[in-house]
Structure formats: C-alpha cells, structure tokens
C-alpha cells in the first residue's frame, strides 16, 4: 500500500530549505516512502526534488490552493512534472464561496473549469473536505452539492476521515459513495479529551478503522495519507505511531 506522510503535520519544521531537508530525512527514517507536499516554506522545486530523491522519497501528491490551479495552471503543471507527481488536491473552498448553496455551486463550476486545465496535462485533481462541508443548505450538505456539481471525470475526492466524523458524517459511507473517484484519503483518528474531540494517531482513537479501510480497498484508493493537524505529542512520534498501526491494520 502507498502510505504517505502529509507534510502539513510537520509544518513547524519545514520553514526553509535546510529544515525541509532535515525533516524529510526524519520522515524517511520513520519508514515512509511517499509524502504529500503541503505546508512547506519557500524552496525551489528542483531543489526539493533532489532532496526527496536523496532520501528515497516520492511526492505522491500535493495540496495546491484553488487560486493557484485557477490563476497559475502552467506553473502548477510544470512543478508537478519536475516532481514526477500525478495527484493534487485543493485543500478547501475559499471563504467567499461559503455560506449558501449558490456560493458552493459557483465554486464547483470554477473548480471544474480550473481542474480541466490541469487534468489535460495528466494530473489528477481532487477536493479535500473539512467539516464545514457537512453543513446543509436547501436540504443537502455542501459536500453533496459540490460533488453533484462536479461530476465524475472532472474533480475527484480526497476524503478526510477526521473531518467527516467531526461533521457528523459517515466516514466509510462517504468513501464508498465516492467509489472510483477517491484516489486519496486523509487518515487521522478522533479521540475525546476533557469532553472535546481531538485529533489522534490512526488506531489510537474511536473511528471504525475496519470499516474505513475496507471501504478504501473497495473504492480504489491509491494513496493512504497520514495527517494530524494537531498532535498531543511530538509530531514525528505521532507519524511513526500512525504508520505502524496502519501497516498492521492493512495487513490483516
């Protein structure tokens, strides 16, 4: 299985090229062989590719803001070509489109148009959810409205397990619903501390991983991406725990 580390987890350790190199070396030492690029400080793409190659790592995907695929498609395509990276995900819907069904539909139209320019160059484009997409307008969740307006073959899904659960959704159900158009998943667990939900390492919280991973396998997931926006311990340790637990669960 392609188990990737989401570099956003380590964003405090990737603010400049020297830190990026040091951090990617640690990620490789944990046992990861692929990463999703996000949260990095300024670095030349060719330098980044050289660092990745030197550590035996591949950029399996990126998080690329909507504004960039809309306004700088040529640069985005060039960067992904340098990185030999086939997948990107837009990390969220800009604020100006939120708050109404019509705003979501407007975003979806623009997202489809922007994604077409990227997909024509062999790069797969997905949309990553948080929990605000589980709000309902006109009797439908934002996530339903978005994917009803972005049909198969235009924009795929990067389902985030924690955020679906946080929004009261069915994690395995959403992965199954997006069958054959969910190449990427973000895997992080949900636990409870002092009566509040917190992010936890995969397998260390309360999500139903047997059902989630079964849905992933049957829905065509390509990359299992470990992410933890906020960690209760050292984030490198958290990534290591998630990797070990996930490998064990996927081998069963």
Structural class: alpha/beta
Q: Which fold name is given in CATH as the topology?
A: TIM Barrel
**Average predicted local confidence, pLDDT:** 97
Per DSSP, what share of the residues sits in E-state strands of 2 or more residues?
15-25%
User: Under the CATH scheme, which class?
Assistant: Alpha Beta
Query: In one word, what is the shape?
Result: globular
Major β-sheet annotation: 8 strands, parallel, barrel
Strand order of the largest sheet: 1-2-3-4-5-8-9-12
Helix content: 40-55%
Summarize the SSE layout with pairings:
Elements lengths: L1 E5 L10 H14 L3 E4 L7 H10 L3 E6 L2 H6 L1 H11 L3 E4 L10 H19 L4 E5 L7 E2 L2 E2 H8 L6 E5 H6 L4 H7 L6 E4 L1 E5 L2 E5 L8 H11 L3 E4 L8 H17 L1
Parallel strand pairs: 1-2, 1-12, 2-3, 3-4, 4-5, 5-8, 8-9, 9-12
Antiparallel strand pairs: 6-7, 10-11
Helix pairs in contact: 1-2, 5-6, 8-9
Provide an overview of this structure.
The structure is a single chain. With 252 residues, the chain is of the alpha/beta class. The protein has one domain (2-251): Divalent-metal-dependent TIM barrel enzymes (TIM Barrel, Alpha-Beta Barrel), CATH 3.20.20.150. It contains ten helices and twelve strands. It has helices at residues 17-30, 45-54, 66-71, 73-83, 101-119, 142-149, 161-166, 171-177, 209-219, 235-251; strands at 2-6, 34-37, 58-63, 87-90, 124-128, 136-137, 140-141, 156-160, 184-187, 189-193, 196-200, 223-226. Strands 1-2-3-4-5-8-9-12 form an eight-stranded parallel β-barrel, surrounded by four helices. Strands 6-7 form a two-stranded antiparallel sheet. It has a two-stranded antiparallel ribbon with strand order 10-11. β4, α5 and β5 form a beta-alpha-beta unit. The longest helix is centred in the middle third of the chain and has 19 residues, at 101-119.
